[in-house]
Write a structure and sequence with these properties.
It is a single chain. This protein folds into 3 domains: about 5-75, Roll (Ubiquitin-like (UB roll)); about 85-170, Rossmann fold (3-Layer(aba) Sandwich), CATH 3.40.50; about 175-220, no CATH class. About 25% of the residues lie in helices and about 20% in strands. The chain is built from 8 helices and 12 strands. It has helices at about 35-45, 95-105, 120-130, 140, 155-170, 190-195, 200-205, 225-235; strands at about 5-10, 25-30, 50-55, 60, 70-75, 90, 110, 130-135, 150, 185-190, 210, 215-220. The strands form 3 sheets. A 5-stranded mixed beta sheet has the order 2-1-5-3-4, with helices on one face. Strand 11 (about 210) and strand 12 form a beta hairpin. The chain is elongated, with a radius of gyration of 22 Å.
Length: about 240
């Protein structure tokens, strides 16, 4: 089968995924004349979940477009804020535990994989519960079963949180989710909690909550200054 030669230009924001040889303007690429443009882009390393528009000779095309010789392709990065259908809910892989806890502190629905269940199970979970898969695993984000996905670019939890808040702009409701299991917290009277608290805690605090899923107890003021700072910074950016 005759090879098809196209030129392709990736948005600089996508260069992290592609080889140095393909980062220039109009890099030459050979295809088989049968594969879709979406397949070509993924084969060059870019997960489609990070792609905004595919532009061929000045016109926007779908991922199913089959390139022909001489076409000039522009791969644009996804624009923010990103919208997904239905309620915004996340699923994080085993390497993003700190990010999951920080999202939960902010009241964001963030399911977390523990222990490692494998890519196939994660993709099925994402599809079943319509959760956006957050991961630094590029292979996982290539899976077609995913409801939606997003690559987490940074290694640092604080920067990761900023990335996700900027990209999706979720509604924040601090201190309404269990940081341990992602369950919803409900307010409870001190009298209901008294037999679960040390005497010093009962004397020092008046506002209490309990996770509806796992029963974990929380009380206002018991969180660390670092968590307070995370909430303050996030709410300041809303």
């Amino acid at each position: 089968m005759a090879k098809v030669e196209i030129s392709i230009t990736f948005d600089p924001g996508l260069h992290v995924f592609v080889s140095a040889a393909n980062r220039g303007v109009g890099a030459g690429v050979a295809t088989d004349g049968v594969s879709s443009l979406g397949h070509v882009v993924e084969a060059l390393g870019v997960p489609l979940v990070e792609v905004g528009e595919l532009v061929v000779d000045g016109r926007v095309v779908g991922v199913g477009h089959v390139p022909v010789s001489g076409e000039r392709v522009e791969v644009r990065k996804l624009g923010f804020p990103q919208r997904v259908g239905g309620s915004l809910r996340f699923l994080l892989d085993v390497h993003l535990g700190t990010l999951a806890r920080r999202l939960r502190v902010l009241g964001v629905d963030a399911a977390y994989e523990t222990p490692d269940v494998g890519d196939a199970a994660l993709a099925a979970w994402s599809a079943r519960e319509q959760r956006v898969m957050l991961s630094r695993d590029r292979g996982l984000l290539h899976r077609r079963e995913l409801f939606a996905g997003a690559y987490v670019y940074s290694h640092k939890p604080a920067v990761q949180l900023d990335e996700i808040l900027d990209r999706f702009q979720p509604v924040l409701a601090p201190w309404t989710r269990c940081t341990a299991c992602n369950g919803v917290l409900r307010a409870v009277a001190k009298e209901e909690m008294r037999d679960r608290l040390e005497s010093g805690t009962a004397k020092a605090y008046d506002a209490f909550a309990e996770c509806e899923s796992c029963g974990h107890a929380y009380w206002r003021g018991a969180h660390s200054a670092s968590l307070d700072a995370i909430v303050e910074q996030a709410m300041r950016g809303r």
